[in-house]
Amino acid sequence: MILCKIAMPEKKVIIRYPAGLHARPASLFAQLAARYKSEVTIRKDDLIINGKSIMNILLLAAEQGSEITIQTQGEDADSALAALVNLVEKSFAVEAPRA
Question: Residue 67 and residue 16: Cα distance in Å, rounded?
């Protein structure tokens, strides 16, 4: 039997948001992740969680300055990863809807 390891796109990012990855940023992250079909995981230290679950994201206790690794797997993995990394790197700033 030959086992093939599928490479999953991943990127390390630093939490720069002053309050860390608390309720509001966790909610924004999970909502954005839910828009994609791909699986989304976040790794911090030895903890790996489902990136589509607000409660799991809060369990990371990722304070400002923490390094997390975002990993995606699925048909839209690259676009999901790019969007989630962008959200974190912009300190969870989102544009207001246009009227």
Answer: 9
